[in-house]
Amino acid sequence: MPSRPKSAKTRPAVSSSAQRPAIVVVGTGGTIASTASQATTLTNYTVTQQADALLAAVPGIQSLADISCMQIFNVDSRAITDTMRLRLARKVDRLLEQPDVDGVVITHGTDTMEETAYFLNLTIKSAKPVIVTGAMRPASALSADGPLNLYNAVLLAASSEAQGLGVLVMLNDRAHAARLVSKIHTTHVDAFTSGEAGCVAEVQDGSIVSLRPPARPHTLDTPFALRQIRRLPRVDILYDYQGAGLHLYKAAIEAGARGIVVAACGNGSLTPQAERGLRLAARQGVVCARSSRTGAGRVTPDLGLARRGILSADDLNAQKARLLLMLALSLPPHACTPDKIQHYFDRY
Length: 348
Ligand SMILES: NC(=O)C[C@H](N)C(=O)O
What we know:
This protein is about 25% helix and about 20% strand. It is an alpha/beta fold. It folds into 2 domains: about 20-220, 3-Layer(aba) Sandwich (Rossmann fold), CATH 3.40.50; about 235-345, Rossmann fold. It starts with about 20 loop residues before the first strand and ends with a helix. The relative contact order is 0.11. Asparagine (ASN) binds near residues 76, 109, 110 and 111.
């Protein structure tokens, strides 16, 4: 349980001016919680800090809200498994059910942040703000970016402007919609983009500048609910390339994959062996989806392939398409036919 703010009693979803919003910061690890041996060491570090220490390093943050914090795990985000992400989602969902919690901030490694954010965006059943943040530089760095990112994340979580926008990713002064955001640089502080759609909001001088709300339905408006999930099914990602072989497709089928997402070339085009592999999988009841390895744009649906159970992942990248497919395959049989799953790809 988070340590409770002293004044926490029943309060509206976002507090009136008389009552400060109650925000829970959930720590999961990542570079924001890491330290290195020297202030100039920016890429070689270890997770050492918990959420309370991160908060203590941010001047003025306590003036934004009544902040409590908790640690669910403390790892590099590459170590987060499907089970851990599910546990985090359940925890956040339960926190938001509490009338005395107005919003949640999650501190997280940036490498797989977009996966956690999109998963929460599809499953959390609340309109209260959920903001995921992190850092590209460790807490020990000269010009560490974590403190301002965390400040801005709490600012956003405490704001009525972030209500009903789904899960947002806050880094480098920008708030991105979970569905659109992706990490596109290995080390720069400005590592995240929402592509052509642009971000949802910016923070300038401690004020939120709203730009555009996310276009796709999320959170309360999806058919995916955590309570109906016991275990997430195996969905594998395969990368297509010139000269690809069939063996990886066979291996995924043999490993019991219920879904395969391929990061296909261009507009979802498949090399001959990838197409053979997907057809083989689809014939055995594995739901397959084509995303694009280009990093932008939608994969045009192909009716011929769709008839064979090979769907289009719309403009989701492979890692996000995988999560949507896992959630879709967790639904009861009548709700996860290939037609229905294509509809989920087109909509969420
Ligand atoms: N910048 C980061 O947060 C990267 C880190 N390795 C992670 O946990 O994802």
